[in-house]
Amino acid sequence: MESLISIGRKAKLVGNKLANYSTVKKNSALKYMAENLINEAEFILGENSVDIVKARKEEKEKAFLDRLMLDKKRIQKMAEGLLEVVKLPDPIGELEARIKRPNGLIIEKRTVPLGVIGIIYEARPNVTVDASALCFKAGNAVILRGGSGAINSNKALVKVLKQGLKKEGIPFEAIQLIEDTEKKTAVEFMKLREYINVLIPRGGESLINTVVENSLIPVIETGVGNCHIFVDETADLEMAKKIVINAKTNRPAVCNAAETLLIAERIAPTYLPVLLTELEESGVEIRGCNRVKKLFPKYKLATEEDWFTEYLDYIISVKIVKNIDEAITHINKYGTKHSEAIVTENQQNARRFSQEIDAAAVYINASTRFTDGFEFGMGAEIGISTQKLHARGPMGLKELTSYKYVIHGNGQIR
Amino acid sequence: MESLISIGRKAKLVGNKLANYSTVKKNSALKYMAENLINEAEFILGENSVDIVKARKEEKEKAFLDRLMLDKKRIQKMAEGLLEVVKLPDPIGELEARIKRPNGLIIEKRTVPLGVIGIIYEARPNVTVDASALCFKAGNAVILRGGSGAINSNKALVKVLKQGLKKEGIPFEAIQLIEDTEKKTAVEFMKLREYINVLIPRGGESLINTVVENSLIPVIETGVGNCHIFVDETADLEMAKKIVINAKTNRPAVCNAAETLLIAERIAPTYLPVLLTELEESGVEIRGCNRVKKLFPKYKLATEEDWFTEYLDYIISVKIVKNIDEAITHINKYGTKHSEAIVTENQQNARRFSQEIDAAAVYINASTRFTDGFEFGMGAEIGISTQKLHARGPMGLKELTSYKYVIHGNGQIR
Fold it and tell me: % helix / strand / coil in chain A, to the nearest 5?
């Protein structure tokens, strides 16, 4: 199998070239990739079924199988995703600023690709296609390291994508897959600081922690969302109910789903019965704080661990808070800086919440479920950053770029 | 001595508050700090002399002593630096974008502080003041970890700066110094991912590597500059000479000084004698490639290591290259992505150089010495980033910020 250093070196070399490819050329390659996905659907499904058989033998859980399994419809969706990326504006070469200095120097700030992006992810073949397309359109070489459970699917998909590169005469090494699925190889991959400019882990908390702890390459942390909804005493209660139900039950397994409901004590006794009943009817398990437990003894008591937990499931923890101060303190303590919402008709509370909550996205009177590249109008996303460095919140094409200063002079010296 | 976790926790708490302080309040504190520096000059110099005596006893080299030593003039300069930061626009709370989505959501993107910034640096007391001022103005809490050789100076300076905070009723913990100077404490500091949002090492290559290798906190690499000047065959030779001499000799110990001269083979035999003689007359040692050595046997032969070396001294390595392709390949191989210059009258070469060189700052017909926050019109800088993530090149106040999305709705759900 090819050595990681060889993979890294090739990516770096190609990365330097991709920066200067035209938008037309990149888009054309993406279109060929989309076509090839459809044309090679049988081949891809065949390879995917090898992974599926193995996963069944290993008695993987249902959610794992669901994420792994491909069918014609899902391949069609991947191809459509590629065509969506074609439509997005090319972020490279944009003139972000141009200043003339008193000494006559003209300083231009231009967007450039990051260079080589490493993606480490779980057994989700769709990430193989999405991530490749976004990195490529932003002029980056990409090195993929997907979960071992999807290795056959990933090999097939990358092979098909490379055919798209070939039609445009773009070196194959713009998209590379690490085929060695041993864990120690992944850890070694995280040390290739000389060749890789940024590493983006996509997956659960333990994957992200492994990457942060082992990587020498700069990392962008994504995706862990312990999101809250705070309903204050001035809230439009009908609106609050709709938002809470939506944020919890619309798609509980995603990172922008709500995990905890905070409610102002003044309205808790009258409003909670309505709201909690409705949540229960939607199949949601309630875990309450001491005060909730006193009002409704039938619910389980939430533990300290509950407040920290991203359930990703039909479970919600509920806490009665004295006021907005207690709500803000709770969220800044237990939240993961992803998405937080307040439902209120009080302008001052809305302003305080938006200023004092430390999160990528803060919502006033809307569901946390909107934290998403498509919903933000970016067209696509490679993940939701929960750190403050480089990019925060949904990361689209622009967030996969860096910049460079080009300075034009006529002999200036200091 | 206070535990690191206690320092981190306090910084995080105060960091959340600083984000919402008014510009007036922050500027007023900075002005008090400047006043206090002048008023307490005797105290600071007394503490500094303790460090100086120790350094002399340990027979530290001249450059070390020069960076460590304070006098009234240097303290005056520190105070002036603080007043410069007062004048800079406040980067916090700026509305970077505002979009209305078809569903009626209004998405605002606003600048916010990074939160808590850790600075790890060598025995340079001026960094204590500069870094504190910039981090503070951008609404960040700062934790300083300076070189052990300057610990008494740093303690004195931080004490004086804190008096400025006190006059405005700002918690002391906005600026904290780690007083424990053991190396293992610094390494432990780099693990405080829960409390610190970004770590900025300022110093030489070995310091930066130690931080990159040990840190769990996102790092911004700064300051290593193996900068090149390429003189092509169309260059205005008088201009080229001025630029090369300036970039090499104006201040050889700084990161934007030139370390290698590349020269097109067509002009080398006639032009090099003039240029190298002038460099020698400026006290610069020449180390040449094989071809230079053949033309001028008196010079030392440059080794492979030379091409990688940031001399920071009156030494230059000189290589004759065939053409711009060889120049670009050399720079992208040996450079540190800091500052690179071409001297040329050929527009196409200028464009290729600016596109294909992978560096924070690419100069056409100007000295590399301009890569600097002041020279770029940022007013001040905390360092020169040589990575592509988050910030590249000189980092001013804006580069010490992140952003947050604030989304206003009226009950939107998905």
Answer: 45, 20, 35
- In A, minimum Cα distance to B16 occurs at A356
Helix B125-137 vs helix B23-39: crossing angle, to nearest 10: 160
CATH of the domain at A212: 3.40.605.10
Do residue A19 and residue A108 come from a single domain?
Answer: yes
**Number of Cβ within a 10 Å radius of residue A98:** 12
Q: Looking at the structure, tell me whether residues B46 and B195 fall in a common domain.
A: yes
Between B20, B390, B405, which is nearest A389 by CB? B390
Closest-CA residue in chain A for B370? A414
Q: Give the distance from residue B409's alpha carbon to the nearest chain A alpha carbon, in angstroms.
A: 5
Q: What is the pTM of this model?
A: 0.93
Which is it for the CA torsion B82, B87, B88, B89, positive or negative?
positive
Contact A370 B105 (CB under 8 A): yes
For residue B205, what pLDDT is reported? 86
**ipTM for the predicted complex:** 0.94
The 10s digit of each residue's pLDDT in B340-398 is 999 999 999 999 999 999 999 999 999 999 999 989 988 889 999 999 999 999 999 99
Nearest of A312, A313, A291 to residue A302 by alpha carbon: A291
**Claim to verify: residue B335 and residue B397 sit in the same structural domain:** no
In this structure, the answer to whether residues B214 and B235 fall within a common structural domain is: no
For residues B291 and B277, give the distance between their C-alpha atoms in angstroms, rounded to a whole number: 17
Give domain status of residue B377, yes or no: no
Cα(B98)–Cα(A38) distance, integer angstroms = 38
- Test B414 with A198 for CB contact under 8 angstroms: no
One domain for residues B249 and B276: yes
Name the token pair of A110: 């231009």
Q: Where are the alpha helices (DSSP H) in B357-398?
A: none
8 Å CB contact between B188 and B118: no
In a domain, B375, yes or no: no
Residue ranges making up the domain that contains A153: 4-221+387-408
Query: Is residue B205 located within the same domain as residue B290?
Result: no
Say whether both A282 and A157 belong to one domain: no
Facing A414 at nearest CB: one of B369, B402, B413: B369
CA distance A157 to chain B (A): 29
My answer on whether A253 and A301 are in the same domain is: yes
**pLDDT of A150-203, one tens digit each?**
999 999 999 999 999 999 999 999 999 999 999 999 999 999 999 999 999 998
